[in-house]
Automatic annotation (TrEMBL):
Compartment(s) of residence: Golgi apparatus membrane
GO biological process, one term: 4,6-pyruvylated galactose residue biosynthetic process
Protein's organism: Tilletia caries (wheat bunt fungus)
Keyword set includes Transferase: yes
Listed transmembrane segments: 64-88
Family membership: Belongs to the glycosyltransferase 31 family.
Protein name from the UniProt record: Hexosyltransferase
Record's bilayer topology term: Single-pass type II membrane protein
EC numbers: 2.4.1.-
């Protein structure tokens, strides 16, 4: 074929206007199928975006359209997620702790005094590197808040405290072994360290067989008893299963004697005790289960499948899976469990004593007599029909002004850092300023009539007797969220005082 004929064929395939050919057939020999493919228009490459399963055009306009749709979808999902979290969050406003304290029943001191002590095993969750916090607990409430013999004042042995750890890391293994051998108060579970991935389940599984208190016998006496005094030399002649097993966090200060008395007046079986949140679950800083419920957790073929997740909510889920769920006793304590005054949480207020709660109750009774209107409306909960709920004080849906009044604290402010009332205070004055109601120097922080360092008219023993309404018991059970060691020591001084701590 001549060169002119090739030129003519090229022009006819390029169309009018003499433009360059868009599709050019190959002059090489090929099969009929290949020749057919050579004459088909070639499609531009496309990409599929997996989130929408649609072609991702190389056109800038389409790229921005899909990108905008993606961003809008992400924003929508994020917004819905945050809304759900906000709705389910029980801590989005300060708790009306004054209402809880004035509305719940008086603690039955006479009944507690008439009953024998109960055996309590307290497991404080810890981890290998947290040696400093364990020492802090040992030297404070682990020693100084144990129940004591009414006659001798000696500590009793029916409340046992142990630290619960997972397997230590290799670099800490020997330190943990030495510490455990020294203090004999550590339990190392055969599992990786964690908080919400099964540790609580493994703890209760271990506790179902091993949570015990010693039966002691004096070397100079044939008499033996559970929880006997630790003053003279004792011999352990046996072990008894604990009536209650407690799970606690290491940022909680627990007054063990008060905890034992609260459990003493609770039902011995089917009991789930703690700070009830939204009629749903007991807060994780400190809750207790009667031994039969611990045994149920350890042996249930169903519970084992629901061990991962927020551990305090998981325990409530296990309780609701109980075969006799309607017979459970949910025992709630919302007055004497709270967060420390410097924590700034929804549960935070000053250190609380019975005399101030008594004052609040008198004020509430006076206001109620003046305003008889407004029946209390219960806030529906998650309790199975027929469940017994002790100490449940549902918070009524009142006005914002009412909620602000009943959540007010003389010490802390919601979501604001704590500020000392006046500069230059002594440690003793700082501790007193953290007491709800103002402490011994109430008024000196805001009035200049007297110097703030004026000596108190009462000594420490008189102050304690007045604050506890001349009873040896009846105050704070747990102070939580003490993330700093200084907060822990402040709580120790506020609740126990130097008379209980100093040897001389």
């Amino acid at each position: 074929m001549s060169e002119s004929l090739y030129r003519l064929l090229d022009q006819s395939s390029s169309g009018a206007g003499g433009a360059s050919p868009r599709y050019r057939s190959s002059p090489e020999l090929s099969s009929p199928h290949q020749r057919h493919q050579n004459h088909l228009p070639r499609r531009r490459p496309s990409w599929t975006f997996s989130a929408f399963s649609t072609p991702w055009s190389s056109s800038p306009r389409w790229r921005w359209t899909y990108l905008g749709a993606l961003l809008l979808t992400i924003a929508f999902v994020t917004g819905v997620t945050k809304l759900i979290i906000y709705i389910l969050n029980p801590d989005k406003e300060p708790k009306t702790w004054q209402y809880f304290c004035t509305s719940q029943d008086e603690f039955p001191h006479a009944l507690a005094d008439s009953l024998p002590p109960v055996n309590v095993f307290v497991g404080v969750f810890s981890y290998d590197a947290s040696y400093e916090r364990r020492q802090l607990i040992r030297s404070t409430y682990g020693t100084h808040t144990l129940p004591r013999d009414a006659r001798t004042g000696a500590p009793l042995a029916h409340v046992q405290l142990k630290f619960i750890l997972g397997r230590p890391q290799k670099q800490n293994a020997r330190k943990v072994a030495l510490e455990a051998e020294t203090y004999n108060d550590m339990v190392v579970l055969d599992m990786e360290e964690n908080m919400n991935e099964g540790k609580t389940y493994e703890y209760f599984r271990w506790a179902s067989e091993n949570a015990t208190v010693p039966i002691l016998q004096s070397q100079d006496s044939s008499h033996s008893s559970v929880g006997a005094s630790l003053t003279s030399k004792k011999t352990v002649i046996g072990w008894k299963k604990a009536d209650y097993v407690v799970k606690a966090d290491d940022d909680a200060f627990i007054v063990l004697s008060e905890l034992e008395r609260h459990l003493r007046v609770s039902p011995r079986t089917n009991t789930y005790w703690g700070y009830l949140i939204r009629e749903w679950f007991m807060a994780g800083e400190c809750y207790a289960l009667s031994h039969d419920l611990v045994r149920y957790i350890a042996t249930s073929p169903d519970v084992v499948h629901y061990t991962h997740g927020k551990e305090d909510k998981k325990v409530a889920q296990w309780m609701n899976m109980h075969p006799n769920v309607s017979s459970l006793n949910w025992v709630s304590e919302r007055c004497w469990i709270y967060d420390g005054p410097k924590t700034g949480t929804a549960y935070s207020h000053g250190y609380l004593f019975p005399d101030y709660v008594d004052k609040l109750k008198r004020i509430a009774a006076q206001e109620a007599s003046q305003d008889a209107g407004g029946a209390i409306v219960g806030a529906g909960g998650h309790f199975p029909s027929g469940s017994s709920v002790h100490g449940k004080v549902p918070e009524p849906p009142r006005s914002a002004e009412w909620r602000q009044k009943h959540s007010a604290s003389t010490v802390s402010k919601w979501q604001e850092p704590y500020v000392v009332p006046v500069p230059g205070m002594t440690i003793e004055e700082e501790i007193e300023a953290l007491v709800e109601g103002g402490g011994r120097w109430d008024g000196f922080w805001t009035h200049s009539a007297k110097p703030h360092s004026a000596a108190p008219e009462e000594d420490a023993a008189q102050v304690r007797a007045r604050r506890y309404l001349n009873r040896p018991h009846g105050g704070t059970v747990v102070v939580h969220f003490l993330k700093k060691s200084e907060w822990f020591l402040e709580t120790t001084l506020a609740l126990l005082g130097t008379d209980a701590l100093w040897r001389f």
